[in-house]
């Protein structure tokens, strides 16, 4: 994969071009989409519902427009900033169920991982929305990235506004990443608790008690 080191390539779990495999792999971990909703511990239950039951959202005209425009914006990002388009799903080094699919990845001359995230919007942003910032920080956590170029294209009635997308750099923020990791761990715990409770309700034979687990729990989702 162009622009990716062998170490990063070894952490690729799936590719969004194979949507079935990609969706299946994402269902077994915590993704940037999941953490986008994790504003506080009060959001854990709702995030667990969405993870286990699905959101029921299958797309609309806005998401269809985003899918149509993303390759064009990705080409602009590659031409102007040298960040190559990516469709790969990566796992983190320590916790392999921490997952992210950035829209662009490159390793610069100094060996630093740099990402791109692409959005389309019908609003004039004064700043990058907070939910998107959480996605960016999560991707930085998963890939060990130092910074991310967020590129967005505003449209009016699905016609792009302006000659080029707008963009802004987001630097790595370890304090924000630490908050997201704590919330993601709480989400994993909630998923595990629901899985155990569900098995108990159905009378399924429970495994013998385990030794105390490490801070990162195994995500309990059915195969």
Task: Give the end-to-end Cα distance, rounded to a whole number of Å.
Answer: 29 Å
Strand content: 15-25%
**Principal-axes shape call:** globular
Whole-number mean pLDDT: 89
Q: Which sheet architecture does the biggest sheet show?
A: 6 strands, mixed
Radius of gyration: 18 Å
Number of strands: 9
Order of helix and strand elements from N to C terminus = HEHHHHEEEEEHEEEH
Low-confidence stretches: 209-223
- Distinct helical segment count: 7
Structural class: alpha+beta
What's the helical proportion of residues?
A: 40-55%
Using brief descriptors, characterize the structure shown.
40% helix, three-stranded antiparallel β-sheet, globular, disordered C terminus, six-stranded mixed β-sheet, 223 residues, alpha+beta, 7 helices, single chain
Can you give me a brief rundown of this structure?
Helix 6 (130-143) packs across helix 7.
Explain what the structure shows:
With 223 residues, this protein is an alpha+beta fold. The chain contains seven helices and nine strands, in the order αβααααβββββαβββα. The model is unreliable at 209-223 (pLDDT under 50). 30% of the residues are buried. Helices cover 40% and strands 20% of the residues. The strands form two sheets. Strands 2, 5, 6, 7, 8 and 9 form a six-stranded mixed sheet that branches. A three-stranded antiparallel sheet has the order 1-3-4. Helix 6 links the parallel strand 6 (113-121) and strand 7. The radius of gyration is 18 Å and the shape is globular. The chain has helices at 6-9, 19-27, 32-35, 44-53, 61-81, 130-143, 174-201, and strands at 12-15, 84-85, 88-91, 99-100, 104-107, 113-121, 145-156, 159-160, 166-171.
């Amino acid at each position: 994969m162009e622009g990716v080191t062998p170490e990063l390539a070894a952490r690729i779990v799936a590719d969004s071009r194979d949507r079935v495999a990609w969706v299946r792999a994402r269902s077994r971990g915590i993704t940037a989409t999941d953490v986008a909703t994790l504003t506080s511990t009060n959001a854990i239950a709702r995030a667990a519902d969405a993870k286990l039951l699905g959101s029921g959202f299958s797309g609309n005209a806005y998401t269809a427009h985003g899918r149509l425009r993303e390759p064009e914006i990705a080409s602009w990002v590659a031409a102007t900033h040298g960040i190559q388009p990516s469709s790969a799903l990566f796992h983190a080094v320590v916790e392999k169920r921490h997952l992210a699919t950035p829209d662009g990845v490159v390793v610069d001359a100094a060996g630093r991982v740099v990402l791109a995230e692409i959005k389309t919007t019908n609003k004039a942003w004064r700043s990058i929305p907070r939910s998107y910032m959480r996605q960016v920080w999560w991707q930085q956590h998963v890939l060990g990235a130092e910074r991310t170029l967020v590129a967005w294209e505003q449209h009016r009635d699905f016609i792009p506004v302006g000659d080029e997308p707008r963009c802004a750099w987001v630097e790595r923020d370890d304090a924000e990443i630490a908050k997201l990791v704590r919330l993601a761990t709480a989400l994993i715990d909630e998923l595990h608790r629901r899985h155990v409770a569900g098995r108990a309700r159905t009378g399924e034979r429970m495994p013998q008690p385990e030794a105390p687990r490490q801070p990162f729990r195994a995500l309990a989702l059915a195969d």
